[in-house]
Amino acid sequence: MKMTDSGFEIFKLDFAAPWGKIYLSLYSHGSVLLPMMAYIYICYWKRGNFHCHPIREKLEAFVTQAEPSWHLIAVNISNEFRRNDTLVIRLGTTGKLVITNSWLIKVSLYDVNFALQRDASLTCVDSDVHHISPEGAQNVQYLTIQVKSSTPRVEGFSFRLNAEDFHTINDRLQHNITILPHVSFHKSRIQHFLEVFRTFITSNPTHLMEEDPELCIGCMSIAAEVKLVRHCVEEGGENPCGSCQCRPMWCMDCMGKWFALRQDQNVPHLWMSSKCTCPMCRVTFCLLDVCPVRKIGNAG
Ligand SMILES: [Zn+2]
Ligand SMILES: [Zn+2]
Ligand SMILES: [Zn+2]
């Protein structure tokens, strides 16, 4: 590459020179021959019922008496993939990890790897933290996870995963991911805040309830844990905090995430003294107004 008057020039071919004609001939023949070779290769695979095709070879390793052909395995994967509980996680810019009920599939630019969930053991072997990433300017941690299959002839594979997706995939696997002792998880700013938020809220006055709290409408996995009750006293001036009449609907983590995501991300040291609005009625509250809930009669 060299600099010219019209900018950078990568190749300069002089077709009038003797070598120029050879280059031109190679280019023109290559542009016809390469697509022809690809077509012939595809025809060769098709005539032989995809014998020697890399994906067929990988699927044949899973052939059993119950599923005696790779066709049946491919149909099984297709059917599971179409279900609405299939989890697809992006791995970098070109790869994907697909988790169905019984399969774990890594799709990369030039390759596909399969593992049966019941036979696969996943190990988190390494991690690296980057201060800038395609997802944003915050610190991001990537984990290297190795997949080994106990099915004979099935090749192991590995993938790099954003640490924030770790729990999402771990919850969908039949066996938990083993984490090697030297791998430590880097906590994101939000995770740090949630720990402090939880400790702070626990020391606020408890709100007693007569009935059991409903499921948190944010995560739908645990019961609601907090209610907004104004307890703060603003010294001098008007207190913007209002009285929220909503019933307890959020767990601590979901309320903490709601609070953190509505703060100025450039000044995290001010979050604890900041205010936010109720997710339902939009009444302003501060952290002193977030009270843990407890059913009357329950110890705690
Ligand atoms: Zn929740
Ligand atoms: Zn409210
Ligand atoms: Zn308040």
TrEMBL record:
The keyword Iron does not apply. Its main location: membrane. Keywords: Membrane, Transmembrane, Transmembrane helix. It is found in: Membrane. GO terms for cellular component: endoplasmic reticulum; membrane. One of its GO terms (molecular function) is ubiquitin protein ligase activity. It is a multi-pass membrane protein. GO terms for biological process: protein ubiquitination. Pfam families: Tmpp129. Belongs to the TMEM129 family. This is E3 ubiquitin-protein ligase TM129.
